[in-house]
Structures are given as C-alpha cells and as structure tokens.
Specification:
With about 140 residues, this protein is an all-alpha fold. It has 6 helices and no strands. The protein has one domain. Belongs to the DoxX family.
C-alpha cells in the first residue's frame, strides 16, 4: 500500500465526521464566548471583568451583551449564521479598538483570542451550525 492511498483513505474516513465536528466546534466556541458575557453581567466566573457589564458608559459592556446573547444562540444552534456574523464583527472591532493599539503582535497585545473567535465565527457564518443545532439555518 503506497502512502498516498493511505492518506486519501484516512481523509475519506474522516470526512464523514465533518458535520459532527462542526457541531462540536460550534457548541464549544459558543459556550466559551458565552462565558465572557456571563462574567461581565453575572459576575461568573470571577475575575478582573466580573460585573463590569452593567456600566454602559464602557464600550466593553456592549461587547459583553453581544457575547452573552450570541454565545448562547451559537451554542444552542439558534440563528447560528446571523449570530456568528455579529459575534465575528464584534471580535474584529474588539481587536482593532482594544488590542491592536497595545502593539503589533497578537500574542503580545492579548488579542489572539479575539482574532481566533473572529475567524471561527466567520467560518460558522458560512458553514452553518452542523449537528446538534436546535434550528437549521
């Protein structure tokens, strides 16, 4: 058996799990995003930003509200595409407003998570919710 046939075979075996893994990535990224919103508005989990969402004179409060709502929608698979699009744009804005001014490199300006969320949610905008969604977009 040559190597190319083995790799091709592996790829075809893994392809059937794509909708399943898309659903898992959607759920996990939605839950992690939701945690940012719950921290800002519910104080859970505790940390530097706990409870900061109620100060609507802070732009982070609006981001927290979007994190709370879109994170829940994405995790549940409800209106995944529009929620992911809004979340992606919010993270792009968060990066350029809050992180990029602190330095060029995302790993140094603490913006790597915002970039990763931005592109995962942008992917979900096009890919849809995958498995385990409460609504197929």
């Amino acid at each position: 058996m040559n190597r190319e046939v083995g790799i091709s075979s592996l790829g075809s075996r893994l392809d059937r799990f794509e909708p399943l893994m898309l659903g898992i990535v959607r759920i996990m990224s939605g839950l992690l995003f939701l945690a940012h919103g719950t921290q800002k508005f519910l104080g859970f989990p505790g940390g530097d930003w706990a409870g900061s969402g109620w100060a609507f004179d802070n732009p982070g409060a609006y981001a927290g509200l979007i994190e709370l709502v879109t994170g829940a929608l994405i995790a549940l698979g409800l209106f995944t595409r529009p929620a992911a699009f809004l979340a992606s744009g919010t993270m792009a804005a968060a990066y350029f407003i809050g992180h990029a001014p602190q330095g060029f490199w995302p790993v140094n300006n603490m913006g790597d998570a915002a970039i990763l969320y931005c592109f995962i949610f942008l992917y979900l905008t096009f890919a849809g919710p995958g498995r385990f969604a409460l609504r197929r977009d």
